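A quick word before the example. In earlier lectures we treated sequence and structure as two separate objects. From today on, think of them as two lines of the same record. Here is DUF2627 family protein written that way.
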Amino acid sequence: MRIIGLLSLLIPGIIGAIGIKLMRDSVFLIAQFPFHYLGESAYVYVLQGVIGLVLAIGGIGFVAGYVFYRDRKRGKVSDRYRKK
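And the structure line, produced from the sequence above:
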């Protein structure tokens, strides 16, 4: 059962890390795997940066939501975040 819990946090964490890498590479004008087939225009780097931002926010948000849910269930959050 712990393996399922570890995988449920590891996969979104890896997706978030890939998103951060895509954003970094778009700043330094390096087109990565699916994007280098589109050419060398500026739109490729903008598209890569936006997709990287979506992946990073999604991955980090999932992990943060999981930790928040677990802490709220155990009663380790402040009073305003507790369920009523």
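Notice the following. DSSP finds two helices and no strands in the chain. We will return to this example when we discuss secondary structure assignment.
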